[in-house]
């Protein structure tokens, strides 16, 4: 997490970083800040329990109350949304670990993650991001800039014939991105990974689903 946070700061400071790298870097910074808070909170609880901090503050009292009940403290839960069962302390910590691992894989190591083709081969867990709306906005900005298209010419579509490993960029910057962990309502992902409208309850597609920005010029 420390190494990833360092790469995130470097990416944000680099004026050459494109919108998608910067979005993932901001996510990584948010994750690092949350992890630092969790560690500091747990250290405060340990210090009080060991008698090294005799004063019981309201913050420590709240932490002790939540953890004693098996719940993640309110300050932790406010960082990201999740189902009721994920608010238990053990489940919440496991969820945070998955989010950290996901971001670590996206930003890559030194010198990785800036290549145009790389982003079409990655899989993005949208629900594991702290600001999924901001991430999707960044994918649109990235595609528009990479291909020289206007933002208002781009329309988001779901599904496609490509297989994981390529986002449909024709060998250059991708126009599509693989999204995992979705629950789809009002549509189904059929064979070939194309989406079709259906009158059925929410379903969870197997594997990743391609979300693609298609260019549709004004008047088309």
TrEMBL record:
It comes from the Eukaryota. Pfam families: Dynein_C (PF18199). GO terms for cellular component: dynein complex. One of its GO terms (biological process) is microtubule-based movement. Transmembrane segments: none annotated. InterPro entries: DHC, Dynein_C, Dynein_C_barrel. GO terms for molecular function: dynein intermediate chain binding; dynein light intermediate chain binding. Residues 19-191 form the Dynein heavy chain C-terminal domain. This is Dynein heavy chain C-terminal domain-containing protein.
